[in-house]
Amino acid sequence: MAHELIYMDNSATSPVDEEVLKEMLPFFNERFGNASTLYRLGVDAKEVLEKARKQVADLINADPSEITFTSGGTESDNMVIKGIALKEIQKSTEENPRNHIITSAIEHPAVLKTCEFLEKFGFEVTYLPVDEDGLISLDDLKNAIKDSTILITIMHANNEVGTIQPIKEIGEIAREHNIPFHTDAVQSAGKIPVDVKEQNIDLLSLSSHKINGPKGVGAVYIKKGIRLEVFMHGGGQENGLRSGTENIPGIVGFGKAAELANERLEEHMKHNQEIRDALIEKVLANIKDSYVNGSLEHRLPNNVHFRFSGVEGESLILRLDNEGIDGATGSACSTHDLKGSHVLAALGIKPALSHGSLRLSIGPENSIDDVDYIVSSIKKVVDYLRDLSPLWDNEEDKYIGDRFEKPVEDEDLDRY
After folding, report:
1. Phi-psi group of 375: left, alpha or beta (phi > 0 → left; psi -120 to 50 → alpha; rest → beta)
2. C-alpha distances out from residue 45 to 22, 335, 363, Å
3. Quick one: CA torsion of 71, 74, 78, 81, rounded to 10 degrees?
4. Beta strand 203-207 with 181-184: parallel, antiparallel or unpaired?
5. Looking at per-residue confidence, does 407 or 41 come out higher?
6. Residue 229: CB partners within 8 Å, gap ≥ 6?
7. What are the domain boundaries of the chain?
8. What CATH class is the domain 18-263?
9. N or C of the chain: less Cβ packing under 10 Å?
């Protein structure tokens, strides 16, 4: 008999909270108005749109007027990076170029691929390296700044290994040089405190479905005074920044999810961290040659990312699924990509070892009572896979892959 499902992939997506769903339902077939119309149904839609805008703003201590709704984190990242780039390139001259962007080597593909796209059009991008914990160096950041730098975009918390960057300090450096600072907070907002004022953030990306809201809706925070070139043209919705009829049911759900995440933040942080720490302690104690990827100190409370020598990640995920446990090898956005993780490569982890990784991301539905079953299931699967692995010596019970593995080279540090 299969074990009841234990879902531990909340960094990929999270189940919609029942209160969120209840809030959304009337806006599909009863209160279905278009927020741009003047009659009662439209006015009703406009009112709930603005209510949700305030709920999302409150989550990050912003003003509602600084929130623009999008289709999700990817669009938000694209809107900011391309919007700043297209605005600044108009001021660029041969004597005074305005074409340099600073980011990190472990960003989400929504940032990395956008930066690579801009490189095709003459923009210069600096990809800051990270240390073995996944943290950038503030000195590296300072040294990378040029007169031509138009944007610093560093994610708040990594979507794979959960490392939290020193966002406040990065923002201070950006302010000192009068450079806009953008952070992808898709994984952090609603999981840890995010305060755009206190943390010196000028631009920030958000997504609903990471905080028990619906898919297909997100937001971008744009500090008052920051100007972006509009890259989605049409009817001028969202103050002209993002044309297209607003997704009212989704936005209502996002607003409610943000409100609940704000109210429950401390409770959920404590809950998640208790489970995270128990998983780390018991996995490392019970499974030989197991490691935690990323920082132990500067880490999201809901994220744990293990590495098991001599194990192949996709087989690990599929066999854990048979045990009733849903986890991930890394980013859900690259699940079907056979390349090794660019994040783990940037941390200096060899490809054969990075393929043996497991990300467990915790949500409010998880229980501390499930930890022993999860750990015993992981051990069972890891032991089985090592029995089959040519990289594991069963007689000596040790990893032998180093005999065949080359060091991490520059070409391994693919950006996506």
Report:
1. alpha
2. 16, 37, 31
3. 130
4. parallel
5. 41
6. 82, 83, 84, 85, 86, 87, 90
7. 6-14+265-412, 18-263
8. alpha beta
9. N
Q: Which CATH class is domain 6-14+265-412?
A: alpha beta
pLDDT at res. 241: 93
Name the β-bridge partners of 308.
290
Query: Does the model's pTM come out above 0.85?
Result: yes
b/e per residue, 121-158, with b = 16+ CB within 10 A?
Answer: eebbbbbbebeeebbbeeeebeebbeeebbbbbbbbbb
All residues at 6 or more sequence positions from 32 whose CB lies less than 8 Å from its CB, including other chains = 41, 248
* Residue count of the chain: 416
Q: How many CA atoms lie within 13 A of 241 on its CB side?
A: 24
Q: Could you give the residue numbers annotated as active site? A: 333
pLDDT digits (tens, 9 = 90+) for 316-345: 999 999 999 999 986 445 445 556 799 999
Quick one: average pLDDT of 7-19? 97
Q: For the chain, what is the mean pLDDT?
A: 93
Task: Judge whether residue 415 has pLDDT over 50.
Answer: no
Q: Can you name the residues that pair with 69 across neighbouring β-strands? A: 219
